[in-house]
Design goal:
Blueprint lengths: L2 H24 L4 H11 L2 H18 L4 H24 L1 E7 L3 E3 L4 E9 L9 E3 L7 E2 L18 E3 L7 E11 L3 E3 L5 E4 L8 E4 L2 E2 L2 E4 L26 E12 L11 H7 L3 E6 L5 E6 L14 H18 L3 E6 L2 E6 L2 H12 L9 H6 L1 H4 L5 E7 H4 L10 E6 L24 E3 L5 H7 L2 H5 L2
Parallel strand pairs: 1-11, 2-12, 15-16, 15-18, 18-19, 19-20
Antiparallel strand pairs: 1-3, 3-7, 4-6, 4-9, 5-7, 8-12, 9-10, 13-14, 16-17
Amino acid sequence: MSADGAWTARRMASRVWLIWLRKIATYDLFPQFGARIRRILYTPLCVLSTAALMALVFGLTIQPRVLVLCVSLTAVIVIGLCWPWLTLRGVEVSVGHDRDRAVEGETVETTISLTNRLPWPVWGLIFRSGYQEPDITPTNRLPWSSSNSPGPTGTEIPLSPVPGRACSLQVWRFTPAKRGRYPRRECRVVTGVPFGVWEASKKVQNLRPLTVWPKTFPVGPVPWMEDESLVEGNVARKQVGNNGDMLGVRPYRRGDSPRRIHWGQSARHDRLIVCELQALHRPVIQLVVDTHPASHSGTGPESSLEWAIRIAASFAKGWLEAGVLVGLVAHNTALPALAGRSQIYKLLDALACLPEDRGTPLSELLASSACRLFRGGLQIVITTDRQWCDWSLLPLRGQRWVVLSRAGFAATPMATSSHGPGTDKKPWLWIPSAQEIPHLLRYGWAEARHGS
């Protein structure tokens, strides 16, 4: 090897050693501990305390005049610690909404009431809300009571100054994009005025929560069962059903039972005529919602979980308004089948508060006592094709399955599933994508298409 080659090899070896030593010197063995130390050191309070300590040391050892700087820095630290604490002791904050319940996509006005009991003005307060930004659709926000105060940014809302012994009301508009109970986290009022040395915070105690219901769509009539049970005292005499007296006749529609054909009228008009019978029962419905994370796909408001809950809410609201008895079985929720306006509130409140990150498997829901002991009605099971493809969960008598295709709600492309492992296994209502849900909920089954 020549001299130049040997020199190049030694240079490359030394460079490799330097890179290796640099990686060792900069490797963080305790990243969490290091991040905590950086959060403590890289703060105004730590910097000012270090500067005051150094000024004290230099003043005692080198130049006494430096002690003036030490006293000044100490005064800044003391005022910066005491002023924010005293400010929050004399301030009361309450948060309310213009309603107790809202629906996804509705604009809600949030009122922040600020009361100053101190004799001097208060400024520099920030309302740190518990409204997560991904759950909120930005809308126009109302101007603050002070024309010079800025508007809210993200989940931190600057509050306008409040004079001594006075109150201030400020309004903030937001549009929740997802169901739930707002605020999702605790709300606090923070301030670092006047020097930003330390940020004091105070939890908002007077907080009026907001329950956001899932979005609902119009639905068709309840599907009829072959063994319709009677409910005494609840006879819908002007509604079309499968039992009771004959209400009239109409042209034959595809799907009508041949037993209801009026042969005399059919022969007279040269076309098939069927009889419409009276409804002598009040339907009883139990909604079973599969919220287990393993069954669903997608994230955020457009996930299959959120749309399954919206479908259940649409069924509950639409059928309860039509006088049907509706109950609900979901994760840690079992509501008996009842009717009335109060039942709408109970069911929609329960659906709005269902967790996103946990749920009971569908097999356990169907094996629970609330489902096993349900008799005399129709059970609507809302799930995805992952559970539908399981042969152990075949639809039983008195069940109707609403199956969502996970491929239509997934954030990333995935294989499209069929209706099931067998060609003869078809669900009562197949949901391929979110765009088709409003139409399928209105005209997706025979009674809805026939208008009965």
